[in-house]
Write a structure and sequence with these properties.
The complex is a heterodimer of chains A (480) and B (220).
Chain A (H helix, E strand, L loop, with lengths): L1 H21 L3 H24 L13 H30 L5 H23 L3 H19 L5 H36 L8 H7 L5 H19 L7 H8 L2 H27 L8 H18 L6 H22 L1 H33 L10 H4 L1 H15 L5 H16 L1 H26 L15 H15 L3 H14 L1
Helix pairs in contact in A: 1-2, 1-4, 2-3, 2-4, 3-4, 3-10, 3-13, 4-5, 4-10, 5-6, 5-10, 6-8, 6-9, 8-10, 9-10, 9-12, 10-12, 10-13, 11-12, 11-17, 12-13, 12-17, 13-15, 13-16, 13-18, 13-19, 15-17, 15-18, 16-17, 16-18
Chain B lengths: L2 H23 L3 H26 L3 H28 L11 H22 L5 H23 L3 H21 L6 H24 L8 H5 L7
The chains are: A mainly alpha (480), B mainly alpha (220).
């Protein structure tokens, strides 16, 4: 019975992608896209209640990836709702043709399939293939407008993403090499559950080297500095729903892959501690992105840099390790996914209302479009980490758990966060308040997904249900 | 382990590193693609030898993919493409050949030192294969950073990917190698189509990446 749920999570997007690729009507495909995303979300939810299947050689469900799957399918669903109301307008203003819209919807489901497969994979080879597939589909979606800028962004993303993917494969091969003398040749040496059981007997030097390659490879996809160059362009030039999915989901999935390998290293007593490497990259990303935020002139690029900052915080938290920091990292990841996608929903509407993404041409949104303007204000307040929203709580937990152990690192982190807040509010002030600037059209995109996400973030900031806390604590323990 | 088997595997993997060096100093695009074809050919031979030495028939598939797709199809397509784009006589500004070669040698030394130390306990065939593979990967990366032209960066990436295939086939009994090499071939096909797409749309005036870099998104 529960095996069916796992199959469904993969089968629904795969079938939907095929259907969407052949169906001609774009109106129908938009609805189908929503329906398929909703069904995947239901299937993912059922994993919480049904008994989990025993891990096979390819697929696995455990506490850790269950969090990610529910989050991924949920954001995938809300984004598809937003996309259905948003993308039609892109066709009306001639940025997309009916054919490219059909392609867009099919690709959306292929991406969901790839993300779900990467999360469910019990096999380091399958995981790698799935992340490669996710990269390819997002590259195509980023370049979908076929403008000079979007093709350039897609190309840059493509080349950097491919190098990252290549390094990750080398790391994957090295992990296999480390496992092979203990577990033996063949498929078993690539299966997570077997790897974890025997990890203590692996050659530690080989594991260390493998982790360096994996960190560089998957770290590129997470958008960690100094490997982040693709991220702002890819976010800025693609369709806005894709920016939301990139920030909210793809970065998480790459981080999930890293976390799995971190657990593998942690299970080997002689291997190097992966924590300090992750802390360094995380901290560099936070500080770098915080300062970069000041010079952004493009609204989507601004929030793309904010994503780099937050991925840095999350990587930092997981690098610190320990039950509390892991808990904080996990919570921050969920909150960031929800908030950042909500912000991109708002930004998509703003770009349609004003006909531009340049911050200089956008102003006084709270006057001209009050709902949208205040929605964006709420989103930015949330992402900046002000109370009482969810990100405040998770950031507070990250910082306070670090202060107890490494005060200097915590200070640097706080400095980075504060610098980032300053930049965000500076820009928010220009966008949302003051004299209205630029043209004003009616917003077409639905507000429901945005407010739904912000609502969850608000509730999570005020009150976290006990079962959820227990679940996250359990996962935090697993992460070591 | 047969010492002749080991020697031949060693010879082929070593030749791959050597061909990587030939690519580093090749400054004409047309010739560069020829060298890449040679690189893929050596890879195909090396993989086929591994298939024979490990008695792993599925690796012959990987070797066949390398031969047909990478050594014949891709170079032919790229040749036609650069002739069409009118850049086949292009002489690239490579970061001085001397320093590049020195850096390359440093990288090969580094990969030998790292891999041979780290894999002290592993099977010698796999061990040396892996060390050479890492050298090819690093040389591919070096090529990508020292080149300015998008086509030659792609060639650099493809040589890097050849190194990965070498590593994957060297890891004895690794499953999914064929699948992974197919996945990579798809990736490469997309990259090549990508170059073509750029041009066919007439959006780019040049495939010079220096022009790409001018765009940072803050252009007014």
């Amino acid at each position: 019975m529960s095996f069916d749920a796992v199959t469904l999570i993969l089968a629904i997007p795969a079938t939907a992608a095929l259907l969407l690729a052949v169906l001609p009507s774009y109106k129908l495909t938009a609805y189908l896209n929503v329906a398929a995303s909703f069904l995947s979300f239901l299937a993912a939810l059922s994993l919480l209640f049904l008994e989990r299947p025993a891990p096979g050689p390819y697929l696995l469900v455990d506490d850790l990836n269950n969090v990610f799957i529910v989050l991924t399918t949920f954001v995938g669903f809300t984004t598809s709702v937003f996309s259905a109301s948003y993308i039609e307008h892109e066709m009306e203003i001639g940025r997309l043709t009916p054919a490219s819209l059909r392609f867009y919807h099919a690709m959306y489901q292929v991406l969901m399939f790839a993300l779900n497969l990467a999360l469910l994979a019990n096999n380091i080879g399958v995981m790698w293939v799935a992340i490669e597939l996710a990269t390819l589909t997002t590259v195509m979606m980023v370049g979908i407008y076929r403008t000079h800028e979007s093709l350039e962004a897609a190309w840059k993303y493509f080349i950097l993403g491919s190098v990252g993917i290549a390094l990750a494969l080398f790391g994957t091969i090295l992990v296999y090499m480390a496992a092979q003398p203990t577990i033996g040749e063949g498929l078993n040496s690539m299966v997570w559950t077997t790897l974890m059981e025997h990890a203590s007997a692996f050659e530690p030097a080989l594991l260390n080297l493998a982790f360096v390659f994996l960190l560089l490879g998957y770290g590129t996809k997470v958008g960690l500095a100094p490997l982040q160059a693709w991220l702002p362009d890819a976010h800025a030039e693609g369709p806005t729903p894709i920016s939301a999915v990139l920030s909210g989901l793809l970065l998480n999935v790459a981080l999930y892959a890293l976390l799995r390998f971190k657990m593998l290293l942690a299970a080997n007593p002689e291997a190097l501690a992966p924590g300090p490497l992750m802390i360094t990259m995380g901290l560099v990303s936070v500080v770098f992105a915080a300062f970069m935020l000041y010079r952004r002139g493009d609204i989507k690029r601004l929030f793309a840099y904010s994503s780099i900052e937050h991925m840095g915080i999350i990587t930092f938290a997981f690098g610190m390790g320990g039950p509390l920091a892991n808990f904080a990292g996990l919570l921050h990841m969920c909150m960031h996914s929800l908030t950042k996608s909500a912000i991109f929903f708002a930004v998509g509407n703003i770009a349609q209302v004003k006909g531009t993404q340049k911050i200089a041409d956008i102003g006084g949104l709270t006057v001209t479009n009050p709902v949208l303007g205040w929605g964006l204000v709420a989103g930015v307040v949330a992402i900046a980490g002000l109370p009482p929203l969810g990100i405040f709580m998770s950031e507070f937990l990250v910082v306070s758990s670090t202060f107890a152990r490494e005060p200097l690192l915590a200070l640097t982190l706080v400095l980075g966060i504060l610098v980032g807040i300053g930049a965000l509010f500076l820009r928010l002030n220009a966008i949302a308040f003051g004299e209205p600037r630029g043209p004003t059209h009616k917003a077409q995109g639905s507000y429901v997904p945005m407010f739904a996400h912000l609502g969850i973030v608000l509730i999570a900031g005020v009150y976290l249900p006990a079962p959820l806390v227990a679940w996250f604590q359990n996962v935090a323990r697993l992460l070591g | 382990m047969h010492s002749l088997t080991l020697d031949i595997a060693h010879l082929l993997a070593g030749s791959l590193v050597l061909v990587s060096f030939m690519m580093l100093y090749q400054d004409r695009l047309y010739a560069l693609i020829n060298v890449y074809a040679l690189h893929a050919l050596v890879l195909a031979m090396s993989v086929a030898w591994q298939a024979y030495a490990q008695d792993a028939p599925h690796l012959y598939v990987t070797a066949a993919i390398a031969l047909v797709f990478k050594a014949i199809l891709i170079p032919v397509v790229l040749h036609r493409m650069i002739v069409k784009l009118g850049i086949h006589r292009e002489i690239e500004t490579v970061v001085g050949i001397g320093p590049t070669m020195l850096l390359g040698m440093g990288l090969v030394a580094l990969s030998m030192v790292v891999m041979l130390r780290v894999t002290a306990g592993a099977d010698p065939l796999a061990r040396e294969d892996l060390a050479f593979a890492l050298a090819v990967v690093l040389l591919g990366l070096l090529m990508m950073v020292t080149r300015q032209n998008a086509v030659s960066q792609v060639v650099g990436f493809m040589s890097l990917e050849n190194g990965l295939v070498l590593a994957a086939t060297g890891a004895k009994g690794m499953p999914l190698v064929v699948e992974i090499s197919v996945a990579f071939s798809i990736l490469i096909a997309f990259i090549v189509i990508g170059i073509f797409l750029f041009r066919i749309r007439e959006r780019f005036d040049t495939v010079d990446v220096a022009a790409l870099d001018s765009y940072r998104g803050e252009r007014e």
